[in-house]
Amino acid sequence: AVERTLSIIKPDAVAKNVIGEIITRFEKAGLKVVEARMQQLTREEAEGFYAVHKERPFFNDLVGFMISGPVFIQVLEGENAIQKNRDLMGATDPKKAEPGTIRADFADSIDANAVHGSDAPETAAVEIAYFFGK
Ligand code: CMP
């Protein structure tokens, strides 16, 4: 089915000047950028976005990293977009990411891991609404 998913190019990848290379991978895989915005997140915005992780030990570091510079937030649309984006990203920990994935090629650590992508249809809907409304 045609789906939409939320993708964030994180501060590490923005600083490396690889927004275009990452978007090219989405486009070559048949995903279309249907919404996009460059944004410096506030602490409150980052905490709200990652609220499901607020009890996790890595929460403060994650939020601190996500507000360390601007991010590029997009909605991707296409057939099977949620899983397709996850396949393109590779594992959360770049040390475990398959060669050729975005995280294997651009990420430095589990926090500075280049991209975020929604993990399921329910979270995609919530995450898209969080940044782009209905
Ligand atoms: P992301 O897909 O943006 O969702 C939550 C983020 O928390 C994740 O990518 C990682 O960058 C970060 N994180 C840091 N430590 C961990 C961990 N142990 N497990 C999962 N995510 C982690």
TrEMBL record:
Transferase keyword on record: yes
Cofactor(s) the record lists: Mg(2+)
GO MF terms held by the record: nucleoside diphosphate kinase activity
Predominant localisation class: cytoplasm
Residues where ATP binds: K10, F58, R86, T92, R103, N113
Domain of life: Bacteria
Reaction catalysis annotation: a ribonucleoside 5'-diphosphate + ATP = a ribonucleoside 5'-triphosphate + ADP; a 2'-deoxyribonucleoside 5'-diphosphate + ATP = a 2'-deoxyribonucleoside 5'-triphosphate + ADP
Quaternary structure annotation from Swiss-Prot or TrEMBL: Homotetramer.
Function: Major role in the synthesis of nucleoside triphosphates other than ATP. The ATP gamma phosphate is transferred to the NDP beta phosphate via a ping-pong mechanism, using a phosphorylated active-site intermediate.
Name this polypeptide is given: Nucleoside diphosphate kinase
The species this protein was found in: Advenella alkanexedens
